[in-house]
Amino acid sequence: MTPHARAGILRRLWSLGTGRFGLIVVAVVVITAAVSLVWTPFPPLQTDIGAAWLPPSWPHLLGTDALGHDILSMIMAGARTTVIVAVGAGLIATVIGMALAVLGALTARWLRESVAVFVDILIAFPVLIIAMMIAAVWGGSLWVVVWAVGIGFGVSIARVARPELRRVLHADFVIAGRASGLTNAQNLRRHLMPNVLPVFIVQLSWGMAVAVLAEAGLSYLGLGAPVTQPSWGQLLQQLQQYLAVHPLSAVWPGLAIMFTVLGLNLLGDALREATDPTLSVRRRGSARRARTHQPEVVS
C-alpha cells in the first residue's frame, strides 16, 4: 500500500464519527501505557494504610483503595497490561488466522477440506473457556491469556477469511493476473489480501477487544496477570467487595475496560468502511437519495 493510499484511508477514517472516537480512545490507552513506563503519580503498588479510602481529591485524583494504593496510578499501570494483551493476541491471531485461511483456500482440495474441518472443530470451543482451561493447567499468567485468545481468535479469523479468499479467487481480475504470469504468492499479495483486508480488520478488532475482556475476566478470577502486575480486572476484583461502602472506587477500572473495548470495536467498524470504497460509495448514494427524495402526495 502506497503512502498516498494510507493517507487517504486515514482521512476517511477521521471523517467518520466512530473512527474518530475509536482512534482517540486507542491513542489515549496507548499513550497512558507508554507514560506509565516512566511516570505515575504514585508507585502503583505502594501501600499507605493511613491514606486508605481517600475520596477523589488532590493529589489522589481518583481516590485510593483499602491499602492506600492510588487508583489513578493503578489504572495507568494496568493500561500496560491491556496493551500487551491486545497487541500480543492480535499478532498471534493474525499469523494463525491468515495461515489457516491461505491453506484452506489456495491449496489442494484434500488439504483445503482438512483445514476447513479442523477450523470447524476448534471454533466450537469458546475463547474464554479455552483460556480458563489453559490457565487452570499452566497457572495464571499474562502470556497464557495472550496465547489462548490469540489462538482462539486466529481460528475465528480463518473461518471468516477463508470463504472470502475463495470468493475473490474466482474474480476476473485474479484470473487475469494469473493469465498474465503472476505466481500464487504475487496474486495473494496484490489482489487477494487487499480485498480480504476489510473483513480481516473487523475480525481482528473484535479479537483485540475480546482479549481485553478475557484478560480482565481471568485476572478478576485470579487466573490472569500475577498480583505483582497491575491489571484492570484485578483492580476491579479487589474493589468490588467494597462496592456497598465505596461504590465510586470500582467505577474507574470498569469505565477503563468499557471504553477500551468500545473504542476497539468502533475503530474496527470504521476501518472496514475506510478500507472498503464500495461501502463509502453506497452510503453516500443512500444519503443523496434520502436528501433528494420527495414524498408522494396521496389523494
From TrEMBL:
SUPFAM superfamilies: MetI-like. GO terms for cellular component: plasma membrane. The keyword Cell membrane applies. Belongs to the binding-protein-dependent transport system permease family. The chain crosses the membrane at residues 21-39, 83-103, 115-136, 142-161, 196-223, 243-267. It is a multi-pass membrane protein. It is found in: Cell membrane. Keywords: Cell membrane, Membrane, Transmembrane, Transmembrane helix, Transport. Its main location: membrane. Residues 79-268 form the ABC transmembrane type-1 domain. CDD domains: TM_PBP2. GO terms for biological process: transmembrane transport. The keyword Transport applies. This is Peptide ABC transporter permease.
